[in-house]
Amino acid sequence: MFKKINAVIIVTIIAVLSLCGCEKIERVWSEPLQYNEETAFYDESFATEITEGAKELEQFSYELNADNEEFIDAWNEGHLRIGPDYIQYFTLADGKSFVIKAYIIDMALNPEYFEIYLYNEGEYKLLKSLNASDFCMTISDGTYLYYSYDGILYRLTESGNEKLMLDAKYNAPDANKYYEKQQLPWDFVTSSISGEGDEIIINADYSYRTEDEEWAFVEKIIRLNADSLKATVENIEH
Questions:
Q1: What is residue 1's predicted lDDT score, i.e. its pLDDT?
Q2: The pLDDT of residue 219 is above 90
Q3: Distance set, CA 135 to CA 73, 155, 176, 223 (Å)
Q4: SS3 for the chain, per residue?
């Protein structure tokens, strides 16, 4: 009797382990592709539409500068309005796509508002919107979308669930009062991200002002396991 029970338990354990093995993600890392007229699912109305969220940012900018005569003059001339800057996408293993739409206020240097969509069979579903000027470093493993802003790496699912993967802000020992709590996000222009196996590799460049009002720079390589979230950090010496 007990032998039969033990045999059932063993078979059950093997079945569960086999099932878990089948669910392991086969990661195929990819960088964003440019969304344009040659894209198979290109939609001009989607590409040119300015959503309500983007318009709210534009209105906030207007109200913030309503007392600035030069700003109002430029506004009335059609400048300083918000519009789509670029659109990127990732094709997923199941045939769907993550689509990132960036908006920029005219005459700004970088986009300040982002929307992330899931494209599936002709439909665009908004998953998340972000008001973040330092949104950067997007990558996909064929199942999830990874992106960062303010020195933090997140993961997004097709259903819109967001998971904090890594808080990589750098505590600069001699950063001055300009940086609250001395927690510095990486430089979103010069940093980069890549994937290899189950590992996410971030080349993070940090820049800050010292107490002597001079610029200091620190470069780190961060290796993050996408499953365990264990990270190793290596300083790069020049």
A1: 54
A2: yes
A3: 30, 13, 24, 20
A4: CHHHHHHHHHHHHHHHHHHHHHCCCCCCCECCEECCCCCCCCCHHHHHCCCHHHHHHHHHHHHHCCCCHHHHHHHHCCCCCEEEEEEEEEECCCCCEEEEEEEEECCCCCCCEEEEEEEECCEEEEEEEEECCCCEEEEECCCCEEEEECCEEEEECCCCCEEEEEECCEECCCECCCCHHHEECCCCCCCEEEEECCEEEEEEEEEEEECCCCEEEEEEEEEEECCCCCEEEEEECC
Instruction: Give the per-residue pLDDT at 234.
Output: 93
Q: Using an 8 Å Cβ cutoff, are 133 and 110 in contact?
A: yes
- State yes or no: pLDDT of 201 exceeds 60: yes
The reported pLDDT for the residue numbered 10 is 44
Give the integer Cα–Cα distance in Å for 199 and 211. 36
Mean pLDDT for the chain?
Answer: 86
- The neighbouring-strand residues paired with 149 are 152
